[in-house]
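INTERNAL AUDIT FORM
Audit reference: QA-55
Scope: verify that the stored structure record matches its stored sequence.
Auditor: D.O.
Record contents follow.
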Amino acid sequence: MITIQTLKVSTLALFLAALLGACASSGDSPSGSPQEIQEVQTQLLGDMLLPQGARLNGADSIIIGRGNEWVGRAVVNALQGATDVYAFFQSEYPKGGWTTVTAVKAKTSILVFTKNDRTATIEVVDGSLGGPKSIIIITSSPKNANVLAPTRK
């Protein structure tokens, strides 16, 4: 015998499961045709090129502004392995006017570029089994931001 209380609890559980499912899938990455995805990513990241087929992970990214003036952290899932992604940035960014400040190839590879008044730090790590082959984390900020060191009290 199903009571009204049991029915209410079941309905609430189904509602919460649907809500959590919607939260998990919303904002994960742009959707649409490859051309539409590329257009959205270009609008957000400006002249910061990404490897072919790479997709912005909206749930883990914090992008303030857009185009060539954005600041924040963009997390990108790549189809290529970490070595190929590292080679892409080393090759392609200087062609786009970015100057390499430093580049370190390791388990977590780091590249730092500057262009005009901007700095981009790019981290490349291996992806997970069943996920993207590699993960790219791009941090963009003004080159000479007034950053004050914390003072000791």
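Auditor finding: record pair retrieved intact. Helices lie at 4-25, 34-45, 82-95.
Action required: none
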